[in-house]
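Appendix B, Record 12. Input sequence as logged:
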Amino acid sequence: MSIPEYLILSVSSVEAVYNGAIAALHGVDLLVGRGEIVALLGSNGAGKTTLLRAVSNLLPAERGAITAGRITFGGEDVSRASPSHLVRSGLVQVLEGRHCFRSLTVEENLFTGALGRSSSRTGVKADLDRVYSLFPRLAEKRRTRSGLTSGGEQQMTAIGRGLMSRPKLFVLDEPSMGLAPLIVDEIFSALKRLNRDEGLSILVAEQNSAVALKYADRATVLENGVSVLEGSAADLRQRTDIKTYYLGGAPLPPQHFPKETAA
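Logged structural output:
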């Protein structure tokens, strides 16, 4: 089946398991158009990280596997490509947990994002300046070891390193986790700027639905490994049930979420 050209990522009826027995995803659907920001929402354990691993073909490294469905990036079946090939093709992911080389300086960490790509020294310097323009505080800490920087600065470093790989689709797993609201807004504002000015496509998984829906164009909600709701971010922001379920209210029963599209 051909994939429409306007889509950069297509997830169709994907099912996944760990250790050959533990079901994690059940027929998940998700689309990301070129130039879109799409939020993947859900509580802890909903299946967000599993889906992002599947998108980057990282499940085998976690003893996981896709057992049904199909994921394509730019029309290419990701299950037939190595994670490194996907990165070189432009599918770049920032994993959950602020993964930095703590003994390296901020700038050395950023340079690692440019390894393995063919680019001139001038091109790498331009990309580095672009990261510093997005996150000025990294420029101030460029000679500081990453292990001595704050949590927010480490997250910015991880994101900047990903940007040094020149993504076409930038995938982020819980970038707001454990960070102060002002830092979260700074990070999401930078991502929105990249999307607006450069047309960068972004898929971001978040428990923090308030900030995700503020910056995203569309969103998909996962619950127990099932995509239960999708729609425009503007529409979902107005849904009282989403606010109740994801912004600290009483949990809603599973039957409250039939498969639907927000109107």
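Confidence is low (pLDDT under 50) at residues 247-252.
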